[in-house]
Amino acid sequence: MAIVVFEHHPLETAGRLGNVLNEHGHKLRIIQLHNGDSVPFDLDDVDGVICMGGPQNTDEVDQHDWMQPELDFIKNAHDADLPVVGICLGAQLIATSLGGEVGHMDTPEIGFGEVESTFFGTTDPVLIGVPWKTTMFHAHGCEVTKAPPGGTPIPLQGSKACKCQAFKVGLNTYGFQYHFEWTRQMLDMILVDDPDFYGSGTATVDDLTLSLDQHYDTYRHLGDRICNNLATLMFPLDKRLPPSGANVDNFHAS
Fold first, then answer.
1. Residue 235 has pLDDT above 80, yes or no
2. What is the pLDDT of residue 211?
3. Which long-range contacts (CB under 8 A, 24 or more apart) does 186-192 make?
4. Structurally, how many domains does the chain consist of?
5. CATH number of the domain residue 125 falls in
6. Which of 59, 94, 112, 203 is the most buried if burial means most Cβ atoms within 10 Å?
7. What's residue 200's pLDDT?
8. Residue 69: which domain range?
9. What is the pLDDT of residues 159-183, one digit of tens each?
10. What is the DSSP secondary-structure string of 205-251?
């Protein structure tokens, strides 16, 4: 049994979320869709699903042969009441698969920015310990414009640029538009990997790099709180593996 982790870009891994889940004894099955891995055919031996970020958009199904199978897999996992978590592109894929809507933003939201919890966010167990107003890292040019049915009446969190920063569908499915999982090393590498995109917001890449020293420690602390809440609350204790042995499999399907 393992948590399936869908990755869509070599630098956008599960980061600190993967580390925390591993420390809690969870086994991760890493599926690198950008590297030719295939979406599993069924939910056998699947404890849950985590969908990471990436440069793709949900309206590019015809350009990526893995996208529709991933959308179908997400819906099947949600319908089976398995835990499903999506971050950035992953959140948009969840929204699309479950009947929500995603659209392009006039200006990308990039860099550290304030996120504010709604009433539903302040009372949600996954956000326990996260302040009403907090700073997270944003890196998206699309957004969820309509959350899927079956969730709270309004999103859990929002920002000035993006009203739906976090949403919940049912009891076991969460989408986060912002990144709470990136390590400092990931941030350093990601900013220089695509300077055209990261410089297309309201700050330059140099400004974003300088802001890491100012914000990263607090960002890491609050991000780890979310990671630990997800690890503790979203995945049942009886699905954890014994602490001995490696808990990460790199799965490369033919």
1. no
2. 95
3. 186/11, 186/12, 186/13, 186/15, 187/137, 187/212, 187/216, 188/212, 189/11, 190/11, 190/12, 190/139
4. 1
5. 3.40.50.880
6. 94
7. 82
8. 2-251
9. 999 999 999 999 999 999 999 999 9
10. HHHHHHHHHHHHHHHHHHHHHHHHHHHHHTS-GGGPPPSSS--EEEE
User: Which residues lie below 8 Å from residue 38, measured CB to CB, with a gap of 6+?
Assistant: 31, 66, 69, 253, 254
CA atoms within 13 A on the CB side of 252: 4
Measured between alpha carbons, how far is residue 217 from residues 54, 183, 241 in Å? 24, 10, 30
Q: Which two tokens stand for residue 222?
A: 């609050």
CA distances from 79 to 97, 119, 208 (A): 11, 26, 39
Q: So which residues are the catalytic ones?
A: 88, 179, 181
Q: Is the Cβ–Cβ distance between 227 and 20 less than 8 Å?
A: yes
**Two tokens, residue 161:** 């640029």
Q: Read off the pLDDT band of 237 (50, 70, 90).
A: low
**Residues with Cβ within 8 Å of residue 115, at least 6 apart in sequence:** 133, 134, 135, 136, 157, 158, 159, 165, 166, 178
Joined together, the tokens standing for residue 230 give 């997800």
Q: How far apart are CA 163 and CA 157, in angstroms?
A: 7
Nearest to 228 by CA among 129, 135, 138, 155: 129
